[in-house]
């Protein structure tokens, strides 16, 4: 990589971590991330570092310990390395920790005072159930299962499609031989479990990034007049344009219909709402089922808009959002904007594989706003929540006990 490009990327990475990046800079970074899986892994290694939130006591401490010029230069040098090398511990880790410190500062000191969620004595408030034994699992139409991190062969035949495993990516390609006029679609399923993420390129060229604890079901080859996929969990889609065959994402509560665009769908069964966020193009969002005797509620989104459906509701809510926050998980980040603590804990459960248990006898409520790295240790992430005015936590294996104060633990 040319040094000038590396330097610009380094500056953007630093500005992103301190929440001062522009939309143009975000687009430049996202374009680079989408060039290859290696770029995404390099980015994750760059921002990885032990969270030092416990050392952040005052604004002066952060300002005196932050040398942005040094951080930028070290990131640029890392980006210009021609060969991938093992992660190094030492001066570079210190620079990564400074970036993490800056993130902690903006999360802890620049967010509004949080509000609080009811809890009961010894009640499980968030627990992610693994939906597969393997971190990433492929289930083919004939029921065969492959652990994508271990056993998928270099190529696999699936009807008129060839499935290839390319270093953390699953790629479907149509064979050179033409398909028969009539062919039955063979449905495959990719499942990510707790802490798992994966990239899939569908047979039509559509690119899909799956978040943790997510299930995507799709035809190995699209032969019907509609390209339909089914989702449980969260995924980001970049849909290949085909005006003859609209692309439809079906979840339990919503249908999202597009021709060619980029959007994020979040539809976890253990959460109380489903959301479609549009980044580029246009999509039409409708309820999966209409209220009895009425037309199906539907709405068309423009970039920067989000459609939200509350479980049991008969209507869609639409609002303007920062769409890049919706796909922060692709950059290895958790971003919360005035989110109920229940949503925060469910998100952490799916990533860290823990169960949160309340020990409070009094009802309290809170919300949280801030940004954290998915590469941080769970203990460091929980400390950010506590320092932001949330509960205190005690980790006991795969169980995390939480209370208003330490005496409750």
Write structural notes for this entry.
It contains nine helices and 24 strands. The relative contact order is 0.12. The chain folds into three domains: 107 residues, no CATH class; 81 residues, 3-Layer(bab) Sandwich (Phage tail protein beta-alpha-beta fold); 191 residues, Jelly Rolls (Sandwich), CATH 2.60.120.1440. The chain is 25% helix and 32% strand. It has an 18-stranded mixed β-sheet that branches. By secondary structure, it is α+β, with helices and mostly antiparallel strands. Helix 1 crosses helix 2 and helix 1 crosses helix 5. About 14% of the residues have low confidence.
The gyration radius over C-alpha positions equals: 22 Å
SS-derived structural category = alpha+beta
CATH class term of the largest domain: Mainly Beta
Number of domains: 3
Distance between the termini: 51 Å
Q: How much of the residues is beta strand, in percent?
A: 25-35%
| Low-confidence runs of at least 5 consecutive residues | 48-65, 82-121
Rounded mean pLDDT score = 77
**Global shape:** globular
Oligomer: single chain
Q: CATH topology of the largest domain, which one?
A: Jelly Rolls
CATH architecture group name of the largest domain? Sandwich
Number of separate helices: 9
Largest sheet: 18 strands, mixed
Amount of helix = 10-25%
């Amino acid at each position: 990589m040319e040094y000038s490009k590396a330097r610009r990327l380094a500056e953007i990475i630093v500005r992103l971590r301190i929440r001062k990046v522009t939309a143009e800079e975000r687009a430049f970074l996202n374009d680079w991330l989408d060039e290859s899986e290696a770029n995404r892994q390099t980015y994750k290694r760059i921002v990885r570092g032990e969270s030092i939130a416990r050392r952040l006591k005052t604004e002066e401490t952060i300002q005196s310990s932050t040398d942005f010029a040094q951080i930028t230069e070290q990131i640029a040098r890392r980006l210009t390395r021609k060969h991938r090398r093992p992660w190094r511990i030492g001066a570079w880790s210190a620079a990564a920790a400074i970036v993490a410190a800056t993130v902690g500062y903006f999360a802890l000191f620049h967010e509004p005072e949080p509000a609080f969620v009811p809890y009961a004595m010894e009640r499980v408030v968030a627990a992610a159930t693994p939906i597969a034994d393997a971190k990433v699992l492929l289930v083919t139409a004939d029921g065969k299962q492959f652990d994508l991190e271990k056993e998928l062969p270099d190529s696999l035949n699936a009807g008129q499609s060839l499935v290839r495993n390319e270093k953390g990516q699953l790629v479907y390609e149509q064979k050179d031989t033409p398909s028969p006029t009539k062919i039955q679609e063979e449905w495959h399923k990719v499942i990510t479990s707790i802490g798992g993420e994966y990239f899939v390129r569908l047979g039509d060229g559509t690119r899909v990034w799956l978040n943790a604890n997510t299930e995507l079901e799709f035809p190995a080859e699209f032969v019907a007049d509609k390209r339909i996929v089914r989702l449980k969990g969260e995924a980001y889609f970049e849909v290949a344009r085909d005006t003859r065959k609209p692309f439809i994402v079906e979840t339990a509560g919503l249908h999202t219909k597009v021709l060619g665009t980029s959007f994020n769908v979040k539809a976890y069964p253990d959460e109380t709402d489903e959301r479609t966020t549009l980044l580029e193009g246009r999509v039409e969002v409708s309820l999966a089922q209409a209220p009895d005797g009425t037309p199906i509620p539907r709405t068309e989104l423009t970039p920067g808009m989000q459609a939200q459906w509350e479980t049991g509701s008969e209507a869609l809510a639409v609002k303007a959002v920062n769409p890049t926050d919706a796909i922060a998980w692709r950059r290895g980040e958790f971003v919360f904007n005035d989110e109920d603590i229940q949503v925060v804990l469910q998100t952490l459960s799916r990533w860290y594989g823990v169960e949160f248990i309340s020990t409070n006898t009094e009802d309290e409520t809170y919300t949280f706003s801030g940004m954290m790295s998915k590469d941080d240790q769970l203990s460091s992430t929980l400390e950010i929540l506590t320092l932001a005015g949330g509960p205190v936590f005690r980790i006991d294996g795969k169980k995390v006990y939480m209370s208003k104060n330490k005496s409750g633990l």
